[in-house]
Amino acid sequence: MDQALHVFITVAEQQNFTRAAEILHMTQPAVSSYIQNLEKSLNIKLLERTNKFVRLNKAGEIVYHHAKNILGLYTRMENLLDDLKHTASGTLSIGSSYTYGEYILPHKIAALLKTYPQLNPTIMIRNSNEIIELVLHHQIDVGIIEGELKTEKLKITPFAYDHLSIIAAPSHSLFNKDKISSFDLSQETWLIREEGSGTREMQEKGFQRLNFYPKNVMTFGSTQVIKEAIEAGLGISLLSHSAIKNELQLGKLKLLEIEGFPMMRNFSLVTPNVKFQTKATEVFVELLVGEGK
Predict the structure, then answer these.
(1) I need a surface site. Which of 7, 215, 240, 275 has the fewest CB within 10 A?
(2) Which one, of 275, 96, 119, lies nearest residue 199 by Cα?
């Protein structure tokens, strides 16, 4: 049946028996035979045929729609069964938000490949909102976002904590104060991420916690650029400890001691809400969730 459905889909999309036969590397009579047998088994005509074209009738449209889903599920089933017989291998497409993707994920991938060297990970770095869309549209196998999300369409699994503090250059005048007030902070230029970024969401929450919104802000599309801008004396920011570890050790950046900080958030895995995952996805998820326990 699966071969008949494949032939039917090809004919429907090409609207021509000859072109379908060429694509399928079959004879035209063989293609016609598959279509006739499918119509016979379903006891209904699926195609309207003339000398100029072949097109779906109403019954054909119904079968075409479901045949696409059936073959997609069949292919996924074959891949999952193949995973049972072999170790994890092949392509694993991962999408990650900037903070995790740029500062933590490379080390996780290195650890993964030591155990599963036949995997071929591909990494895409986007902001959290874009990662969610990529998973929803099946363009990546698994995503990593900053924060959490509630949706029935996706499976969201928090797996690690992240801490964020207000950062300034060591020479900043705020370090000369015995106690830094919200008013003091409100007078500073704040360097913030773009809309849709998980870090931007936490920066907005930080302003709410401090009970002000800064008059002077500069927006950047990268945490790395914000760090460079802080070092250059352009302003201050709320950033993840994961992103500034090296700069803190080298003394290039310094944490401001503010009541109510550091703030905490989750890093979360985002996967399609399906019962089974490929072996490659499973071992990656197990690595991150296992380390987070």
Answers:
(1) 275
(2) 96
